[in-house]
Amino acid sequence: MQDTQDRRMAVLIDADNAPRKSLKNIMEEVAVYGNPTIKRIYGDWTHPSMNTWKQILLENAITPIQQYGYTTGKNSTDSAMIIDAMDILYAGQVEAFCLVSSDSDFTRLAVRLREAGKTVIGLGERKTPGAFIKACDRFIYIEILNENKRRQQKPAAPKPKRDKPSGPAPAEADAPAAPDPVSDPPPQPEVKAKNGAQPGIPQDIIDFIAGVIDDVGDEEGWAYLGEVGSLIQKKQPDFDPRNFGYKRLTLMIEACDCFSVEARDNVQKGNGKLIYISNKTRG
Hints:
Elements: E1 8-14, H1 23-33, E2 35-43, H2 54-59, E3 63-66, H3 77-91, E4 96-100, H4 107-115, E5 119-124, H5 130-135, E6 138-141, H6 142-153, H7 203-216, E7 223-224, H8 225-235, H9 249-254, E8 259-265, E9 273-279
Parallel strand pairs: 1-2, 1-4, 2-3, 4-5, 5-6
Antiparallel strand pairs: 7-9, 8-9
Helix pairs in contact: 7-8
């Protein structure tokens, strides 16, 4: 199987339906899934509102494709992007396509590319219609990329410094210090959701993952995490652990008490570990 990092990709961006400020985050995410050998963005670059794209396109080496708006109120960039995608498909230049748009007009294009055996990665905002999301092999919300980036760049809050006393008073030498209600709040009990789910992970997502584990599990109920992740992506292309505050699926699974996690030796390769998961007995 071809290494994902070596997979050639065509990145086609609908400038009318993609946020300019998020383009850098988008391109960084694209690099995770392959090597973007073709990078094009479509729009009417004669329009004054498109001038703000220039610098960021230069920084990311993205080729702007001019498409005039022939009719007021009609989006003519869609047809240009679709025609280019089909030309690239028939030329056999790439193994995967990345379609950056929140427009449902690209649903049929995504379906056609997958019919030709190409992997289709979609990136769009949460307003993206479900039909386009389901037509992709994987769909990523741009808002999640922006939130993760802000979280990474946010500096850690400095710890408050306290003046060290020169020595305790005789009457206080052996007495425990009273807790400060502001800086030392009393510990709060951990709140668990139904069936062991953690706050922030909806119950329907927990049930969905549990169902996938049952689908691919062995007779004892254990399933290889890699197979679970693949089937999850096929059933719900927009599933992403980052949507729920977890960097990886493994961390999300470990945070839920309703799943058991077990690391097993990789017998075939002789080194490393394979993660297996199962559903705990649920009442």
